[in-house]
Amino acid sequence: MHSKRVPFALTAAFMVAGTGGAFAMAPTSGQACAPPGVPHPQLFVQPLTTSFDIRLRLSNGPPLGDAVVLIEDPSTFALPDPRPLLPGCSANLRGVFALAVILDAAGSFNLLIPPSMFANGPRVSVLCIPVGGWLTESSYSNTLDLSPPQFGTSSALAGPHAGIAGMGVQPPEVVIVEFMKDPTTVSDSHGEWIELWNPTGTFVNVEGLVLSDFGSDATVLDNGGAGLFIPSHGFLVIGRDGDTTTNGGVPIDYEYSGTTLSNGADEIVLSTMGGVVIDVIQYDDGMLWPDSAGRSISLDPSGFNASANDDGANWCHSSMPLGAANSDTGTPGAMNEICP
After folding, report:
1. Percent helix, percent strand, percent coil in the chain, to nearest 5
2. Is residue 312's pLDDT more than 90?
3. How far apart are CA 82 and CA 95, in angstroms?
4. What is the pLDDT of residue 79?
5. Residue 62: strand, helix, or coil
6. Degrees to nearest 5, angle at CA 331 with 329 and 336
7. Which residue, among 269, 276, 271, 339, has the nearest Cα to 310 in the 3D structure?
8. In the structure, what pLDDT confidence band is assigned to residue 34 with cuts at 50, 70 and 90?
9. Which residues, including other chains, have CB under 8 Å from residue 309's CB and lie 6 or more apart?
10. DSSP state of 51
């Protein structure tokens, strides 16, 4: 089945092919499925404190490609087992069509969605199809769980950030898993970025945390009180320049200032304003840590925790180019490569 530039026509074809109007979906929660060499799109969802609407955002999809948003519908569970859409996908979820979107030049979309859209389906995934591509060239985002208490009930959003992990007494669990300290396509002031990982089974909010080093650098992550959420087993990319036209095309979720990454030895510290350290790494100037210009420093996925990322031996350089116009490497917003 060949992709057309009319997403709704494409969706109609899927609906006929599906079992009882349902799609055969992969992946399972926290996983993604894509052909070899195709980066995984990353889906984010954020509740708004001023309304019950939900902000749904996708990054790292195929530029100007088609995105089909699919909802897993519990009412379809009694149907026969579906066929997988993509070869090589180990798991099959059922999903029903929600809406179709054409991605922007950065491979992203950003939508406000009413919770009623998810009334019968607590999980959402996105199928991305390249321009002029085949179905087998498409890729899935991660799958996000939208069931209460995160969304859909007044108690979940009754107070500022209520029901969202990371805003209570306990500091959120967050792990530093990738960073670009020495870009070559653009300057450091535009191309530095840090990727954070949420190892928990629910959203965490990192607004109000402090990004610093052991010296004078320090900045508070401030999103105006709207929250800065990382989905379960998902990523948040923070950087010095959030404009993809000047930062080398890197999808930045939050732009910060007041902290820089030394091209030699330095530290990245994430802590509460009360001084509780959530995670810290101390990289050197190439003795025990990777240190090549133009390549991100990436934590092996087997070591995605705040203990393993202390050891430079668990880090390596990414080999994935950032884009056609950026020869630097990295996987911001997507799963890291396995270190050799």
Report:
1. 10, 30, 60
2. yes
3. 10
4. 39
5. coil
6. 115
7. 269
8. low
9. 175, 176, 177, 279, 281, 299, 303, 315
10. S
Q: Whose CA is closest to 97, among 75, 117, 83?
A: 117
Handedness of CA 28, 56, 227, 73 (dihedral sign): negative
Report d(CA 3, CA 21) in Å as an integer.
19
66 forms beta bridges with 102, 129
| pTM for the whole structure | 0.55
DSSP β-ladder status, 123-129 and 139-140: antiparallel
**Alpha carbon distance 274, 244 (integer Å):** 33
- Amino acid sitting at position 112: L
How far is Cα 200 from Cα 195, in angstroms, rounded to an integer?
Answer: 16
- Cβ 296 vs Cβ 262: under 8 Å: no
pLDDT for res 33: 57
Give the 3-state secondary structure of residue 265.
coil
Q: How far apart are CA 255 and CA 2, in angstroms?
A: 38
- Domains of the chain and any CATH numbers: 7-145 (2.60.40.10), 175-329 (2.60.40.1260)
Average pLDDT, the chain: 75
Taking only the tens place, the pLDDT of each residue in 48-76 is: 544 456 677 787 788 899 888 877 655 54
Task: Assign 167 to helix, strand or coil.
Answer: coil
Residue pair 129/68 in contact by the 8 Å Cβ criterion: yes
Distance, in Å, from the CA atom of 333 to the CA atom of 42, rounded to the nearest integer, reads 6
What's the confidence (pLDDT) of residue 238?
98
DSSP code of residue 330: -
